[in-house]
Amino acid sequence: MILTHPEQYMSTREAAFLWGYPQNTVSRWCQTGKIPGAEQVAPYSPWLIPRNAPCPSPKKANKNAPTRDLHPFVGTFFL
Questions:
Q1: Fewest CB atoms less than 10 Å from the CB: which of 10, 54, 56, 57?
Q2: Angle 12-19/23-31 helices, nearest 10 degrees?
Q3: Cα distance between residue 30 and residue 12, in whole Å
Q4: Taking Cα atoms as reference points, which of 24, 23, 19 lies closest to residue 56?
Q5: For the purposes of burial, counting CB atoms within 10 Å of the CB of 78, is it exposed (0-12), middle (13-18) or buried (19 or more)?
Q6: For the purposes of burial, counting CB atoms within 10 Å of the CB of 34, is it exposed (0-12), middle (13-18) or buried (19 or more)?
């Protein structure tokens, strides 16, 4: 698999922060297919989770996570 748009993916660490779950829980969801579109480039490599993937269990949404809005002038994330 070749990543043509890596900015469209997030790591298990990012997903864990945004969704409010431990990183190992997010990894387990990837392994069991609970996160649609989650892929690995090779066995034992990091998981690539689509940024638009829904949380499989949204009960604990992280209220402290930054917004996903981009600053219109700078093109970077702002809080």
A1: 54
A2: 110
A3: 9
A4: 19
A5: exposed
A6: middle
Token readout for 16 is 């864990």
Residues 6+ apart with CB under 8 A from 45: none
Q: Are 50 and 39 in contact (CB under 8 A)?
A: no
**What is the rounded distance in angstroms from the CA atom of residue 54 to the CA atom of residue 76?**
22
Q: What is the spatial order of strands in the sheet that 47-50 belongs to?
A: 9-10, 47-50, 39-40
Residue 10: exposure state from Cβ atoms within 10 A (0-12, 13-18, ≥19): buried
